[in-house]
Specification:
Number of helices: 24
Mean pLDDT: 79
Oligomer: single chain
Distance between the termini: 133 Å
Shape: elongated
Strand order of the largest sheet: 3-2-1-6-5-4
Helix content: 55-70%
Largest sheet: 6 strands, antiparallel
Number of strands: 16
Length: 680
């Protein structure tokens, strides 16, 4: 009969029993030897050995958990002491006692900084037997405690007397020797965090025999030190609060007034927040703040340009763009006005634009100052508060009509900037998401407008874009290096105006509803604002109005040709449409608007002749036809040479001083020929 090997099962069960009973590691390790003596075969013996190692790991994990539980219990108890803080000394004694108990050291003690004396002193000790040690005072940088206070970092010394990392002094070494301490761990008591934290003292745990402190012991002592710092800071705060209450008791009426103002500020904040949650716009927030502060409020973007306004200040669309009609007021009226009047209007518009840029720069400077101080600032007779998202300057709130703001109203104004930033961030996030989806529609419109016109129109309506309505098509370019910035600027420019943008063939394409001006005016307004938003010169070509996928695609083709022509003509950084490029525009435009070109070039002369019965157009034709000779021109016209001179002077006044430059002469002669061929 063969001998059967012993089973490993009893030994495995033995491991579980020992583990459940919390047996020491030696007993767990002996199970393998018992199994070997019992005759367990090699394979099962290996299983028992592996199970023993696992049991030892579980035992260590359980010990760590129990230890951590004990530590957490102590920390919770300490937190409870802090919550019921009555006697600071009692709380500090409790913390020092728990530090000694949890780390298992012979003694623990806590030192605090004496601001008047400029050193530190023993505040609480536990386990100390030396009166000399209990009365020690340490200068900054002296001893282990001085090193902890100086560096604001934990330090552990396994053998204090032989440790050369810190400055030894006779008095400190004598006290440590009298106490019999050898291994010392010290951690700082910090108020605040980071590099700005203030060391107000140190917490120590020490043994009278050499010892190496484990990282988890250092972490535990740091946690207790944090509690001690909180207790000290809380006690100081309570003392300061009691002093403040004693002082404020004599001014109870002022306190009630201040509380009422704070309540008003909180209610105002709730009102503004509710306004945003109900879908309010930037203009709604500005109007609400104006009503609360009894002033006039304007909201400006990060470049200083108006987003909205109340009370007549600021101006512009709520999307952050300038009013194209206002910006191009002079240019839009050139056809109806005489050349001299148009030039004056254009000069006025340029002056207004320059003044607006100067105003925007002043607001940006004030907003930067507000960001630096984290408060509203008073500049040039108005209050300015930065609207921030982290460190990004989204814009600013501007308050007019309130030269003096008390603290509650000032805080209300500053809180309003927070609400405004939330609204702008929300709206920008939504706009960026919508614009990405709408940008796909624009790409399909420009690449395959005839593939499914009805489908494109339906997609547009689902996205809030009625492609059957007239739109302007703008093509903008700022160089390859600034392409991403231009794309972001286009999203901001169209924000809230019902337009959409996309990047196509290296340029930004903007589709926006017609606003009653013309494609040239829209292009100039966009060029100025996009340049400010992107921080680089932006060239914009306009086309349209166009309605329907095919017409929009054709408008894009015309705009792209116009953009190339502007680069060739040296008109980078500006805005124009094909019709405004003179005869070049006539060649570029899809409709070849000859009448429009003639009217734009000869309009002032045609109108003058029609109104006064003169012959300025015929005189100009004769002048050019005679090669600029006054004699031959007067013979062809059958008038005196002085009459020719007077008519040329009138032409000069109507067309402006540059009418006889080579470029303008070419335009005028082409317009005269087209006018003659058309029967004029």
């Amino acid at each position: 009969m063969s001998h059967r090997p012993a089973s490993a099962a009893p030994h495995l069960r033995r491991l579980f029993e020992l583990l459940a009973a919390g047996a020491p590691a030696e007993e767990l390790g002996a199970v393998v030897a018992e199994a070997r003596r019992a005759g367990v075969d090699a394979e099962d013996l290996a299983e028992v050995a592996g199970a023993t190692e696992a049991a030892l790991r579980v035992r260590n994990t359980l010990r760590q958990h129990r230890r951590r539980e004990t530590e957490l219990t102590a920390l919770f108890d300490t937190a409870g002491d802090l919550a019921a803080l009555r006697d600071l000394d009692a709380v500090l004694r409790s913390i020092v006692r728990r530090a000694r108990m949890l780390l298992g050291t012979d003694t623990a003690y806590l030192t605090l900084a004496d601001e008047e004396a400029g050193d530190t002193y023993m505040r609480v000790t536990d386990g100390s037997v030396s009166e000399l040690f209990q009365n020690l005072r340490l200068q900054l940088g002296e001893g282990l405690g001085g090193l902890v206070a100086q560096t604001a970092r934990p330090y552990a010394s396994p053998d204090y007397r032989a440790d050369g990392r810190f400055l030894h002094t006779g008095s400190i070494d004598a006290g440590v020797l009298d106490e019999g301490l050898v291994a010392i761990l010290g951690v700082p008591l910090l108020l605040g965090s980071g590099s700005g934290g203030q060391v107000i003292g140190a917490l120590f745990a020490a043994d009278r025999t050499p010892r190496t402190f484990a990282p988890e012991e250092v972490a535990l002592l740091c946690s207790l030190a944090d509690h001690a710092a909180i207790a000290i800071d809380t006690a100081r705060t309570m003392a300061d609060a009691r002093l403040a209450l004693a002082e404020l008791a004599e001014a109870n009426a002022v306190i009630r007034e201040h509380s009422a103002a704070m309540q008003r500020a909180a209610e105002s904040h709730d009102r503004l927040t509710d306004l945003v949650l109900r879908g309010g716009d930037v203009s709604d927030v500005a109007a609400a703040v104006a009503g609360l502060l009894k002033g006039e409020v304007a909201v400006h973007d990060g470049a200083g340009w108006p987003l909205t306004a109340t009370g007549g200040h600021g101006g512009g669309c709520t999307d952050g763009t300038q009013d194209p009609a206002g910006a191009e007021k002079a240019a839009g009226g050139q056809e109806a006005a005489g050349a001299g009047e148009a030039a004056d209007a254009k000069e006025t518009a340029g002056a207004e634009e320059a003044a607006g840029a100067e105003e925007a720069a002043a607001l940006v400077a004030a907003a930067e100052s507000s960001r630096a101080t984290a408060h509203a600032v008073f500049r040039d007779g108005r209050w300015v508060c930065a609207v921030l998202a982290g460190q990004e300057l989204l814009g600013c709130l501007v308050l007019y009509g309130r030269p003096e703001l008390d603290d509650p109203d000032r805080r209300l104004f500053e809180r309003s900037s927070v609400v405004t930033s939330l609204l702008l961030l929300l709206r920008r996030s939504v706009a960026e998401t919508e614009n990405r989806v709408r940008g796909d529609l624009i790409t399909d419109l420009l690449t395959a407008p005839d593939r499914d016109s009805a489908g494109l129109v339906a997609r547009g309506r689902r996205l809030g874009i009625d492609l059957d309505r007239p739109h302007f098509l703008l093509v903008a370019h700022a160089g390859d290096a600034a392409r991403e910035r231009l794309a972001d600027a286009a999203v901001q420019y169209l924000f809230g105006c019902g337009g959409v943008s996309a990047v196509h063939e290296g340029a930004a394409v903007l589709l926006l509803p017609c606003d009653g001006t013309g494609p040239g005016a829209a292009a100039r307004a966009a060029a100025g604002q996009l340049g400010r938003l992107a921080g680089v010169p932006v060239t914009v070509a306009g086309a349209g109005p166009a309605a329907g996928p095919r017409a929009i695609a054709d408008a894009h083709a015309e705009g792209a040709r116009c953009l190339r022509a502007m680069h060739v003509l040296g008109r980078d950084g500006g805005g124009a449409c094909a019709a405004e490029l003179g005869f070049v525009g006539v060649l570029l435009g899809d409709d070849h608007d000859v009448d429009g070109f003639v009217a734009a070039t000869l309009g002032p002369l045609l109108e003058y002749d029609a109104r006064r019965g003169t012959q300025l157009v015929r005189t100009l034709r004769a002048y050019f036809g005679s090669g600029g000779s006054l004699t031959r021109a007067k013979e062809e016209l059958h008038v005196h040479v002085n009459t020719v001179v007077q008519r040329l002077d009138r032409i000069h006044a109507l067309l402006g001083p540059g009418w006889n430059t080579p470029e303008q002469t070419l335009e005028l002669q082409l317009a005269l020929r087209l006018h003659l061929l058309s029967g004029g």
